[in-house]
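User: Okay, second chain of the day. Same drill as before: sequence in, structure tokens out.
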Amino acid sequence: MEILKSVILLGVMGLIFGAVLAFAAQKFAVEVDEREAKILEVLPGANCGGCGFPGCGGVAAAIVKGEAPVNACPVGGAAVAAKVGEIMGVSADTGEKMVAHVMCKGSCSSAANKYEYQGIGDCRAAIALIGGPKDCSFGCLGLGTCVSVCKFDAIKVVDGVAVVDDDKCVLCGKCMEVCPKGIIAKKPAKQEVVVDCSSKDPGKVVKAKCSAGCIGCKACEKACPVGAITVENNKATIDYSKCIGCKQCAVKCPKNVISAGDISDRRIVAIDEEKCIGCTACARVCPFGAIEGDKKQPHKVDPEKCKGCHLCMQKCKKDAIKCVEQ
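Assistant: Same drill. Structure tokens below.
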């Protein structure tokens, strides 16, 4: 009988507590915007933190509150941004894709070492020993700390230098956070022209430490027709908002420090006089003064001045400008 009373008492207490909890849950419930759940469904679920928020749930809540743009997820890219934009009822301005880039070309064959490192395979551990084994204090140590934190298999160490795969990189920023040298920067994915050196040492010092280092000679700065590259503190820097991709800086760099992809596409151009209407759009945009001609008259290209930047081709509405086969 006592056991039965106990069971009944526990049952009644359970009902009472359950009712109290149900009332409290309803009374103090936090209202959640249904759009947050919908956004969470379309996000990739990587929880990488590359968006700057604590996981996908964090960025979904921030987007709904207006604290983050609809294209805040770097992993999802344009496709996810479009879906999130549809949920939020706004246009997804995805902009240009940005990627991480290691600003160093100091490979095993080009960069000198101070000593042979035999410690833990981690750049942060190596730098504690008088700045690491590499003689250049700005050079990539190549021990792969950035590789270990990349969830997207976008970084590999090639010949002692970390290299980023632009196609796989989502710019989550993890590699930038852990690099003890701070030489991983972001750049537009489509931008081929990059200064692959972070050294701020004088040219004489750089030459003694690395055959692939920037010596601050300013040849690139002088060659740029639009002032997109400048040399400060012995280091060349590109302003991508100005760069037109003419690759003149890479051509003129005596140390081949500036990467520019395949420069064979810098073929000079010629104008088909039968198609040209003399609108002068090509002449106005040419940074080298290579196009001449009177208004409403066919224009001509001076092959000695043309550098193959192809800006004129982009401006010509009559498709009158073509590359000259070489």
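The radius of gyration is 29 Å.

User: Thanks, on to the next one.
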